[in-house]
Write the structure tokens for this entry.
Amino acid sequence: MSNDMTCEKLREIGAELALGILPGRERAAAVAHLDRCADCREYVEQLTLVGDGLIGLLPGCEPPVEQDFARFWVDYVCVGHRPLPPENF
Ligand SMILES: [Zn+2]
């Protein structure tokens, strides 16, 4: 039961992560990886930006409602601070 997330694995699940459909445990591992891997962070940020409107490229990156994970990404990508995701994300 390793929580290790490799860059390779991260890139496999990146799309799911960006879309917010990754199961919580994997997502937590992925986010932990992103916290220490700038390359993957950039990769997922790109996925998020080109993804189907998770953040939506809103002017000023206004957070969408009813989307905890999207809000997390708005903080993460736009505001620039990186809160640890809650366990039950
Ligand atoms: Zn990585």
User: Anything to note?
Assistant: Residues 7-79 form one domain.
